[in-house]
Every structure is written in C-alpha cells, then in structure tokens.
Amino acid sequence: MKITRKEKSKLILEGFITVGLIGLVYYAAFVILSRAISAFPGIIRSLWIFGDAIISIQSNRVISITPFFAFVLIIIAAIAIHWRLKRRYKQMQLNHVISELHYIAEGHYEHRIATDLSGDMKKVVDSIHVLVDSTVKAMEEERKIEQSKDELITNVSHDIRTPLTSIIGYLGLIEERRYQNEDELLKYTHTAYVKAKQMKVLVEDLFEYTRVRQTTTPLNLTEFDMVQLLEQLAADFELEAEKKGMQIEVVSKQEVILMEADTEKIVRVFNNLISNALNYGNDGQHVFIEVEKVGQEVVISVNNDGSPIPAQSLKQLFNRFYRVEESRSQETGGTGLGLAIAQSIIDLHGGSIYAKSDKHLTQFILHFPLTQPSQKD
C-alpha cells in the first residue's frame, strides 16, 4: 500500500523525534549515573559488577562508555526507532483501509483494497473482501428474489385473468338472460365450469409449488419398492396411453429397489413426468420408464419417442410457468408449474433431474439417494 508524500514526511519527522528522545534518555541516564557515582562511590562500586566492560570510571566520575556498550546502545536505539516507525506505518495503513472501507460503503462494491500487505493487516483486508463479496452476493440474491416475486405475480395474474374473464363473461350472459334456449344456457354454464376448474388447477399447483420450494418442508419418509411404485403408476396411466395410441411400460434391471422417500411427493413427480410424456409425445408410440440402482442411488429415466424438445427450451424446462409452445394456452400447456414442482420435490430429497432430447428420444433423468438423513422435529 503506497503512502502519500505527506505521510512520508511525517515518518521522517517521527524518526528524528525518536532519535532525539532516545538521545535525551541516554544523556539523562549518563548524567544520573555520573552523579550517583560522585555521591555514593563506595556503594556504587560495591554493587557494580561489570567492571570496565561498559563504562570507564576514574576519580569517582564516569569518563566514557566503552565501544562495545556504545554499539549495544546503538542497536537498542535502532530497534526502538524501527518499532516506533513500523507502528506509525501500520497506523497509516489502517487509516487507508478505513478510508477505502468508507468508499466501498458508499456503494462502490467492486472496489478492492490494495493487497500488497502482510501479516495481520493482510488477513484483515482479505476478511473485508470476503465480507463485501458475500454482501454483494446476498444483495444480488435478494434482487433476484424480488424480481422472481414480480414475475410470479405477473404470470399468475395473466393465467388467472384469462379464465376469470371468460367466467365473468359467460355468467354475465346468463345473468342478463342473453341466451336463446336451454342448450345455449348449458353451453355457457359448462364453459364457465371448465374455466373455473382451470383456475382451481392453477391455484392448487401454485400452492404446491410455494410449499415444496421451502427448504423446511417436512418429508413423510417411508421405505418402499421403487420398481413396484413405478409399475403401479404405469398401470394407472395405461388407459390414457391407449387412448393416445401409445404403450407404457417399466424396464428395471433389478426386481426390487428399496429406498426411503416421501411417496406422496414422489408420486406427484412421476405423475407430472408421465403426463408430459403422453401429452407432448403423442406423435410417438412408446413411453417407457427405466429404473436402475447405481451405488447408493437410484437412477430413473422417463422416456418417450415423440417429437423432440427444441435445444433452446431444454435449459428452461424447469423454470416456473415456462411452456415449450409459444402460446400460454392451458388447454395445451397446463399451468407451467408441473416440472418446477417436480424439481423442487427432487431437491427436497437431495436428488437431481435433467432432460435430454433428440430426434429419437426425449428423456427426463432423475437421481435419488436410497436413504434420507434423519429429520429432527
């Protein structure tokens, strides 16, 4: 850390003052010793154990100091001067650090204090940099959270407003009796009913999403057979698959894979994934689920041979309200929360999920640990 010309001048002045003070101390000691010998020669000589190694005494007076003692005094003086100047230099460094801290506190968070320091001062500066970095990171995360909240409100408002407008419109027609016959009345009420159900699904998905996003959400852990669970889910979707002209099956290298997880939440994950495979892979013929135990985790792949997912969409699939199709129609795209909910549930279990897609196969690959750490109430 460079010091200013003014600070250098202060250090030089400090050096001269220190030399002067040490000289005065030495002179005062010399005078006191000389007078003590003159006043009490017998006592001083009886107590003096150094002989002529330090001072020369003649006729009860100190004549001079020996060269050896003069060298010792010079060394002591040099040490004292060095200590005092070093102490003052550290004070100047500290003032520089405090000044730059004030500069950083004014909002210049990218600024860094000079690092050509050593010892404790370097440790202090490094700690300050770590603190500033963590503060900036926390501020950035808070900004993203606020932005995320705004986007959430915007998306929810959009998705609720569309069916709500339809419901109000059709109920308004009924209220004003602007229908020709009972069939038209039933058509209006049916449309309002369908739109109300869409709103209900959105609200339920939104509630589930906000619930599973909380890291403190408790897991109701039970031990179960993942192969059996997947086979049961495949059987539940078999009728829907047949209607779409598709086949659904489970492929496992092991007959039984015991693991520990919250089965209710796990079922929600695979319901979302299998539904997506049937809805978006309906130009394909197969949906098959591969499951395998690998080490201390289970790896599951939900696959379909339908149309591939565009490469630019793969990284955004798990963003809330994201839909691959350009429109935000709930008839074709659902609420856009299913995969976000699935990812949050998997995160709660300490697992991971990612997607791959090409012209042959679209895969959603999940990794789950076989066991969960014990949860304290």
Automatic annotation (TrEMBL):
Class of enzymatic activity (EC top level): transferase
UniProt-listed SMART domains: HATPase_c, HisKA
Keyword Membrane: yes
This protein's UniProt keywords: ATP-binding, Cell membrane, Kinase, Membrane, Nucleotide-binding, Phosphoprotein, Transferase, Transmembrane, Transmembrane helix, Two-component regulatory system
Catalytic activity: ATP + protein L-histidine = ADP + protein N-phospho-L-histidine
Its EC number(s): 2.7.13.3
Membrane topology recorded in Swiss-Prot or TrEMBL: Multi-pass membrane protein
The keyword Magnesium appears for this protein: no
Location(s) in or outside the cell: Cell membrane
Residues of the signal peptide: none
GO molecular function, one term: kinase activity
Residue stretches making up the Histidine kinase domain: 155-372
Membrane-spanning segments: 12-33, 62-83
Pfam families: HATPase_c, HisKA
PANTHER family (alphabetical): SENSOR HISTIDINE KINASE CPXA (PTHR45528)
Full protein name: histidine kinase
Biological source species: Carnobacterium antarcticum
Lineage: Bacteria, Bacillati, Bacillota, Bacilli, Lactobacillales
